[in-house]
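Section 5: illustrative case.
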């Protein structure tokens, strides 16, 4: 406790914040849609408060610091009902005083909310949508991206596989649009880091019920056939964001090969086993409060809410304009138990962050890998770099 008080006093001295009698009220909105509960494994079905729990813990953390600075943070949450207009929901949060709104929305809804929010002076923090176009041709100056892109995930995985010298890949892609987008990111990563895709195949989603008496037998017959006759390869990469087939691949492939991508070795921003750089204390606090493990979605929302709190503290102001200017400035950083401070790319407002590689029980590695160099930040070896961007912030 003494160390905390000393740290807070030093912080007050560094930012020169004068305390007033009335607490400075900072309202943070959280606009989300219910997560899909369709998963191959019952273990992976998300909780109803997936993401929301991360926001609630982050608000507590913001208020821990805010208490010393005479700031008070309030979370205003809105869950979209089926068919509800997200713009109307955003306006309702703005009417309640939330000028920063964290979102867990798909790309199309996020863009609608972003365009409508510009007139209201609302800044969005995207904690869910992975789509590259949101950071490229469809980028917006009032959207900061905390969720990684598919290319960041693919690059994090590719660096490790290349480091292992597993450079011959077979790529098995699902038939849904998001599967195709992830496959594109994986192909780009292979080219970027010197791997070779020896063959690509498509797994078409034809529907059907796997949870039947004959389901396991059907899977056991089907998965080897899907991968039969492939050229020599080191690893099977699955692009299956839609959760149709990838979870059935490990231990069922024709050749004895490791699986990575959407199953097996999975790139992510967080997992329940991660315990480096003090992460175990965050994991323990989360589990104690919510009686479940912390997910990547929880962590992305937690980080977004903490970024807002950090901006208010470091700028010494609750003014949304000053806070946003600080987040976009080169002075901004946020600590998120990743071994280094996370910063924002000024060309597309994407948060730089390491990518964890998770095997379902343990964190196997953390990218960027040693030896992958960059002239400004090793984190910029993950995802599209400044020379590649199509973003023109407006």
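Designed sequence:
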């Amino acid at each position: 406790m003494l160390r905390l008080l000393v740290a807070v006093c030093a912080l007050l001295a560094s930012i020169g914040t004068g305390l007033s009698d009335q607490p400075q009220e900072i309202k943070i909105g959280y606009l989300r849609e219910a997560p899909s509960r369709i998963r191959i494994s019952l273990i992976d079905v998300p909780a109803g408060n997936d993401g929301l729990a991360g926001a609630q813990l982050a608000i507590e953390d913001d208020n821990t610091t805010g208490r010393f600075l005479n700031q008070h943070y309030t979370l205003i949450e809105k869950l979209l009902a089926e068919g509800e207009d997200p713009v109307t929901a955003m306006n309702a949060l703005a009417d309640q005083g939330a000028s920063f709104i964290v979102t867990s929305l798909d790309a199309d809804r996020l863009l609608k909310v972003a365009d409508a929010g510009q007139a209201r002076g609302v800044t969005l923090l995207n904690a869910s949508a992975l789509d590259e176009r949101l950071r490229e041709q469809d980028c917006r100056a009032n959207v900061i991206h905390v969720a990684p892109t598919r290319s960041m995930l693919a690059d994090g995985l590719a660096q490790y596989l290349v480091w292992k010298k597993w450079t011959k890949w077979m790529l098995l892609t699902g038939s849904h649009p998001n599967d195709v987008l992830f496959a594109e990111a994986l192909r780009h990563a292979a080219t970027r880091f010197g791997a070779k895709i020896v063959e690509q195949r498509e797994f078409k989603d034809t529907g059907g019920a796997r949870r039947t008496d004959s389901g396991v037998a059907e899977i056991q017959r089907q998965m080897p056939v899907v991968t039969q006759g492939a050229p020599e390869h080191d690893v099977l990469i699955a692009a299956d964001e839609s959760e149709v087939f990838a979870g059935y691949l490990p231990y069922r492939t024709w050749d004895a090969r490791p699986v990575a991508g959407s199953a097996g070795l999975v790139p992510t921003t967080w997992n329940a086993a991660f315990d480096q750089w003090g992460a175990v204390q965050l994991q323990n606090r989360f589990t104690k409060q919510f009686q479940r493990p912390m997910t990547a979605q929880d962590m992305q929302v937690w980080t977004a809410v903490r970024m807002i709190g950090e901006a208010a503290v470091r700028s010494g102001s609750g003014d949304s304009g000053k806070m946003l200017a600080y987040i976009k400035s080169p002075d901004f950083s946020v600590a998120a138990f990743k071994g280094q401070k996370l910063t924002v790319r000024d060309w597309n407002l994407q948060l730089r962050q390491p990518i964890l590689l998770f095997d379902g029980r343990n964190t196997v590695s953390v990218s960027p890998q040693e030896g992958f160099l960059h002239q400004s930040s090793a984190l910029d070896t993950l995802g599209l770099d400044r020379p590649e961007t199509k973003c023109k912030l407006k």
